[in-house]
Amino acid sequence: MNVVVCVKQIPDPADPGELDPETKTLKRDVKLILDESDSYGVEMALQLVDNAGGGEVTLVSMAPNSEVGGLRTALAMGAASAVLVSDPALQGTDALGTARVLAAAIQKNGTPDLVLAATESSDGYTGTVPVQLAELLGLPSVTFAKSIEVADNQVKIERQTEAGYDEVECPIPALVSVTAGVVEPRYPSFKGIMAAKSKPVDEVTCGDLGIDAGSVGWAGGGQEIVLVEEAEAREAGEIIEDDGEGFQKIVELLDNLKVI
Ligand SMILES: Cc1cc2nc3c(=O)[nH]c(=O)nc-3n(C[C@H](O)[C@H](O)[C@H](O)COP(=O)(O)OP(=O)(O)OC[C@H]3O[C@@H](n4cnc5c(N)ncnc54)[C@H](O)[C@@H]3O)c2cc1C
Predict the structure, then answer these.
(1) What structural domains does the chain harbor?
(2) pLDDT of residue 99
(3) Ligand 1, atom 11: closest residue by C-alpha
(4) What does each C-alpha distance from 105 to 63, 124, 221 come to in angstroms?
(5) For residue 173, cis peptide bond before it (omega within 30 degrees of 0)
């Protein structure tokens, strides 16, 4: 089974850099790393290929400055190869433009059995790229997967909901978006890190993918960032004094938060 995982490379959240005051977008001319959200998709893809007894995991990423930092981490986890789309014309590309670029990069090597993406990225997170990508690829889109099984040309997922999960099934090929925290992403081994250095990364431009530069970048954007504000400071937590019945208040609190 062949699985493509969309992998966004983002500035390190520990040192996220700055916003460009003019465009209100994040400056991405720093070293980029694998978005943690996507490490779950990579892990799930590796497990699916292992269970199928054959096939490969290929990564697809759009990032500036020929950045491969995050891709090398995912290759060290076990992915076989990557396609990187990097082109100055892509600066300012909005979510739909990103989906167009990723769709073209995926189609370059034919349609895989599954395309995985995270539900939302950690830096920009519109949460819209996976469904747009499914539409552009003409694939069914199954979202919020907390587990994935593939058998008899069907993909079956547990789709996370507020109250629990739904079981959803559809034929493959399909696009599945996965939620964070549902599998334990493996740590790359030393052997994996060394092997990743020589794994193929196919770097392509808009021209290579037949993408009209006017349909992406600032020129092709249908979205505009009108305002950016500081996030509100986090409020202090609630302290529950245990008077012997404290557990009931904790259960009530967790129930209200819908975590139990
Ligand atoms: C007007 C505008 C201008 C922008 N200009 C810039 C800019 O100049 N430079 C810049 O870097 N960003 C820019 N952005 C942000 C960038 O376009 C978004 O980050 C991207 O379009 C969608 O990412 P997201 O985080 O919203 O995706 P989401 O839908 O939240 O991501 C979900 C999943 O989709 C996949 N995915 C998303 N993006 C990528 C990617 N690039 N490669 C591989 N997989 C991906 C990943 O699996 C990800 O976890 C701009 C956004 C807007 C609206």
Answers:
(1) 3-223 (3.40.50.620)
(2) 97
(3) 28
(4) 13, 21, 19
(5) yes
Pocket test for ligand 1, best of 29, 129, 177, 218 (most atoms within 8 A of CB): 129
pLDDT at 50: 96
72 alpha carbon – ligand 1 mean position (Å): 19
**Alpha-carbon span 147 to 167, nearest angstrom:** 10
3-state SS, one letter per residue, for 14-33: CCCCCECCCCCCECCCCCEE
> Is pLDDT larger for residue 259 or for residue 66?
66
Pocket test for ligand 1, best of 27, 65, 93 (most atoms within 8 A of CB): 93
Distance CA 165, CA 168 (A): 9
73 CA to centre of ligand 1 in angstroms:
19
In whole angstroms, give the CA distance from residue 71 to residue 62: 11
pTM to 2 decimal places? 0.90
Q: Average of pLDDT values for 225-250?
A: 88
Q: How confident is the model at residue 211 (pLDDT cuts 50, 70, 90)?
A: very high
Q: Decide whether any atom of ligand 1 lies within 6 Å of the 188 Cβ.
A: no
Strand locations in 92-140 (E): 114-118
